[in-house]
Amino acid sequence: MQSLGKMMARPLLVSAILEHGANQFGMQQVVSRETHGSIHNYTFRDMANRAKQLANALHSLGLKPGNVVGSIAWNNYRHLESYYGVSGAGMVMHTCNPRLHPNQLAFIINHAEDEAVLFDSSFAPLIKAVAPLCSLVKHWICLSDKTHVPTVEGVDIKNYEDLIAPFPALFDWPDLDENSGAALCYTSGTTGNPKGVMYSHRAIALSALSACLPNVLNISSQETVLPVVPMFHINAWCLPYACLIAGAKLVLPGPRLDGASLYELMESEKVTLSAGVPTIWMGLIEHLEKNQLAFTTMRRTGVGGSAMPKALIAKFNDVYKVDVRHGWGMTETTAVATISNLSADEMHLPNAVRHDMVAKQGKSVFGIELKIVDEDGNSLPRDGQSQGELMVRGQWIVENYHKAETQALVDGWFPTGDIATISPDGVMQIRDRTKDVIKSGGEWISSIELENAAAAHPQVAMAAVIGIKHPKWDERPLLLIVRKQPDFTDKQDLLAFLEQRVAKWWIPDDVIFVDSLPVGGTGKVQKNELRLKYGGLFSA
Ligand code: AMP
Q1: Hey, which of 94, 361, 431, 513 has its CA 20 to 30 A from 9?
Q2: Which string of b and e fits 143-153 if b means at least 16 CB within 10 Å?
Q3: The CATH number of 364-433 is which of 2.30.38.10, 2.40.10.120, 2.40.50.180, 2.40.440.10?
């Protein structure tokens, strides 16, 4: 018979992360750019004290462990305090994507049964639209002081500062079960209603610990971290927790995510590590190029959410001397599940080879297992060639959606809806989403690879490829381009450029120049919108 380990079973809790940060790195800074533009600066210890005041205040409103508190907010210090005050007290922090349609926003607030909603003053018009649809919400709390509270007809709004002011910075964090819910985030829901993923305290703590590892984002107390990834998108990939575990300075950018504002914040706060989606980094690099700027302190960036184009990796690496860590994850995986990272030997490979490697989504982090399967669920070989649906399992992977009646798992694995290859040494490459891959004449064309190839063209600012119904081939690719210069109109030049990079039968049947592409709140091009608009193009 196996003997049991004789170790303490102390729970992994969000409150423990806060206490660790405040006690071990109490004087470390949190810098936050506020919605109205000013910079707010305080310490981990101050933050922890105010999180405790908030926990007391929520109790005084009658909220209890297990209740859900929503947030519709940018990355800023009061939102950070809520992360800890709400979850620490045993309630569930439900972060909402403000770019959802008001009906969808109301759907998730009602589905989650939010009792209170914390929101930024800039979202007052949204509150006006959703409040009448959300009868369960008893408290609308503006994340501001008295002077910045908006007036919304018919909605009684409290302000955060007055709410927490009467309460002491003392709170006995409950000794919760580490498997109880700490945070809730709904999937983007491009089809059907969004689905809720309830993160346990344990999943968050393990995932945040993993983010700190050298092979993942390498976060220590020597780093200054700027999470550009929104706090409503998968807990900002757990960076608000990881920074307190590691004692890293935390810089929160508020609503201004354009290249100029981010660059200014990176320089003024001496940011060394940042994390966000590729579209954000495109804007930043464009700003640097236009103004001939360089980074003084930035040395590493974590990127994910959609595929990072090789051309952008090359710019970061070769021109701006910033190491790119390209990760893959989804709402259902709490944060980073795989990450590209180079070994000491690989660091000496020629630039182009290294960029190719980083453009893949990398190896799974400890705790996460991957496999790919065919349409019948049979495992496919890890040969770097066979492609199939990516399945994932691990300690911080969803088991079931919140209040779902159907099972999310297949034989204990979560089907991701992504199509991938896995190489013999474990490097995973996303080839497409199952719903985005283009089925042409019985073969598959990867929209991601075509976009990647197009993004390398000097006139291309942004590219999207969608499959369009075709009478002969089932589907054919259509390329949509946002140009760098509006006078560039040479489609043939673009197609000839692609011919050097992809198989001939992959070449898009047409190219359309557009002023912009629809990008959702989590930085992904909304391909379903494009399909609706251009879907009939080849069948007419
Ligand atoms: P979400 O749950 O909204 O974060 O979306 C998760 C999906 O984003 C994944 O299933 C992938 O399709 C996509 N995704 C995330 N990271 C990457 C990446 N590095 N490369 C390509 N696709 C990605």
Answers
A1: 94
A2: bbeeebbbebe
A3: 2.30.38.10
We find that the CATH architecture of domain 14-201 is 3-Layer(aba) Sandwich (3.40)
Element (H, E) at 328: strand 323-328
Q: Which of 212, 229, 240, 203 is nearest to 398 (CA)?
A: 203
Map out the domains of the chain as residue ranges: 14-201, 364-433, 438-534
Tokens 């809520």 belong to residue: 82
User: How confident is the model over 292-324, as pLDDT tens digits?
Assistant: 999 999 999 999 999 999 999 999 999 999 999
**What pLDDT band is residue 190 in, cutting at 50, 70 and 90?**
low
pLDDT of res. 540: 61
CB 235 near ligand 1, within 6 Å = no
DSSP letter for 317, please: I
187 counts as catalytic: yes
Q: What is the pLDDT of residue 100?
A: 86
Which ligand 1 atom is at minimum distance from the Cα of 307? 20
pLDDT of residue 189: 59
241 closest CA partner among 208, 203, 271? 208
User: What is the second-level CATH architecture of the domain 438-534?
Assistant: 2-Layer Sandwich (3.30)
Ligand 1 probe mutation, 301, 306, 308, 341, most atoms within 8 A of CB? 306
Q: Is 306 in the pocket of ligand 1 (CB under 6 A)?
A: yes
40-72 burial, b for 16+ CB within 10 Å, e for fewer?
Answer: eeebbbbbbbbbbbbbbbbeeeebeeebbbbbb
Mean pLDDT for 331-341 is 95
CA 8 to chain centre: 34
Beta bridge partner(s), residue 176: none
pTM score of the predicted model: 0.92
- Given the CA of residue 326, which atom of ligand 1 is nearest to it? 19
Bridge pairing between strands 510-513 and 443-445: unpaired
Active site residue 332: yes
Which of 128, 158, 371, 439 does the annotation list as catalytic? 439
Give the end-to-end CA distance of the chain in Å, rounded to a whole number: 71
**Shortest-distance Cα residue to atom 15 of ligand 1:** 305
pLDDT at 131 (0 to 100): 97
> 123-166 pLDDT, tens per residue?
999 999 999 999 999 999 999 999 999 999 999 999 999 999 99
Could you confirm whether 439 is annotated as catalytic?
Answer: yes
